[in-house]
Amino acid sequence: MSQSYAISALWNHDFEESKLETWVEELGKQLIDEKVSLGLVFLTPSFFEHAEKIMEIIRVHARVPLLMGCSSHGIITNGEEIEERDGITLSLFHLPGADLCALALNADILGG
């Protein structure tokens, strides 16, 4: 298995906690250093009812200190746009030396 600083994959199965945990752990192992700096997750509507649990699984099993994402009817992974199908896209990044923090922007901050 080749290792890199970023990995992205699609989960296109039903929500099953233990299998999702294993999938997330295996993704993290594909990084050049298993220390994740950033996680990006995208969910389609069929996973909304499990969103809180999915976020917890990703934070715990990939040890993600900063997790961001959104929901949509379409998702993108590894250069492929997937519409009309359900899934979770998870991207994990190992960014040595990066100092990341979340910042929420709204119209007031942006002057609009």
How would you characterize the overall build of this protein?
The protein is of the alpha+beta class and 112 residues long. The chain has a single domain, classed as 60s Ribosomal Protein L30, Chain: A, CATH 3.30.1330. The protein has three helices and six strands; from the N terminus they run βαβαββββα. The chain has helices at residues 17-29, 51-61, 107-110, and strands spanning 6-11, 38-43, 67-71, 74-77, 80-83, 88-93. It has a four-stranded mixed sheet, with helices on one face. Strands 4-5 form a two-stranded antiparallel ribbon. The radius of gyration is 15 Å and the shape is globular.
The overall strand count is 6
Return the CATH architecture.
2-Layer Sandwich
Through-space gap between termini: 48 Å
Protein structure class: alpha+beta
For the residues shown, what is the average pLDDT? Answer: 88
As a percent range, the share of helical residues equals 25-40%
The percentage of residues in β strands lies in 25-35%
| Sequence stretches where pLDDT stays below 50 over 5 or more residues | none
CATH class designation: Alpha Beta
